[in-house]
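Changelog note: in this version the structure field was regenerated for every chain. One regenerated record is shown below for reference.
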Amino acid sequence: MLFDLEAELRNSPEFKLAMLEAAKEAQQMAITFARQVSRAPWMLHGGHTWEQAIQVVDDGDVVVLVNKDSAGHLYEFGSVNSPVSAPLRRAVRAVGMALVETPKP
């Protein structure tokens, strides 16, 4: 029988805790990056703070960092009138994690 070390590590509680801690660190970095881009209060939609908008979500097998602001995609990817600022992607890379981007088919 072969021993799958990677699978064993991924299923360990210690791995999950480490992923949650890294995601929380990335969350703080993303909030910092988002604040650098949008200092005007009208930039946040829905009357919430960056701490409420940028959240760590434990989705069972994966831990993800999300921006729940209705204009979060514009901050991340830009538009015709605003540049790309990518606070989530920059934050994940800043804490030393690998970012796997999976574009829509």
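Spot check on this record: The chain has one domain: 5-94. Residues 5-94 form one domain.
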